[in-house]
Structure prediction request, 365 residues.
Amino acid sequence: MIATQEFMPRWASSPGDTISDLITSKNVESDDVAKACGLDSEEFARLIQGALPIDGALAQSLSTCLGGSVSFWLRREDRFREMLATVEADQWVQSLPLKSMKKLQWMDVPRDWRDQIAACLDFFGMDNLDGWRATYSAQLQNVRFRTSARFPNQLPAVSAWLRAGEISHKGFAGGTFEPSSFWEALPKIRELTRIPDPEDFLPQLNAIALECGVSCVIVPAPDGCAASGASRVLPDGSAIIQLSGRYLADDHFWFTFFHEAGHLLLHGDKAIHVDGDPAEFETNESESEANTFAADILWPIEDRPAGRSKPSKRTILRMASETGTSPGIIVGQLQSSGILDHSECNYLKRRYVRTGSTLTLKRKG
Prediction:
């Protein structure tokens, strides 16, 4: 015996389609039907379009003037609303970066579109699309990032990236976020910038952060997501700094980390921060404050030499040694201040490669 699956179209037919068909087949006037239902022309147009729900009284009027039982019209309405929700969920699924989510092994992507809806809701830990809207869409509407020609549909992709970070955070045993402890830990974390290989400094970074109620997770960004970093305090009170490692270079990695740390310490009352390139993300006062916070930790103003002449390689190495950070970070700060062009001295930056869900040092040669 061959099992057959119930046909379910990827579109929703409103009761208005049935009403229009009956008006034609019975050769009655639309105005007469509208009058019998107690509707004006605008309300009747909304009924035909599916924007005006059919309640018990309207079902009774339609039954009287067009036929069909009251229960038929109420079932027709319920079925339409169910299918409309399914179609909306299908459209939402198609807006997600499914190929990336599969490639990054965040989830399996079923072939059947209905199974895809279930799989995506399960990934987000939601029972329905309304849950996703309330948890992710509502929060991200308040995040000051904008789309661009390169990233025209960021909100669904960013929400998937954030969810992947939350999944990586599961099992975190560091307790609630302690801002004072995190402030005190920043000098120790800064010392890690001298360590070349993420395989060596990431375990130490997470051990220090864990004692402050913070986890640092590395999650590559999917297609359509321009995020470099994000930070937020989760409902259980723990905090998460999420990094995409987008440019695979030490200067960008550490600047992004301390930028997000600045958000947690300076703007902890805000629900979420998502940050990326200035070309794609808006800047505001809180972003400027986080930028200044990160820059001053990596290279305090009092340690910076006077003048704006271009330093030599030897000078950059000396400055890095004196300030206790890496040459690549010094180069990055010199580039952002305009002393160096963004194409200059990049060979002094440490480059990373992705290994699964973490980063390792890119070996030369």
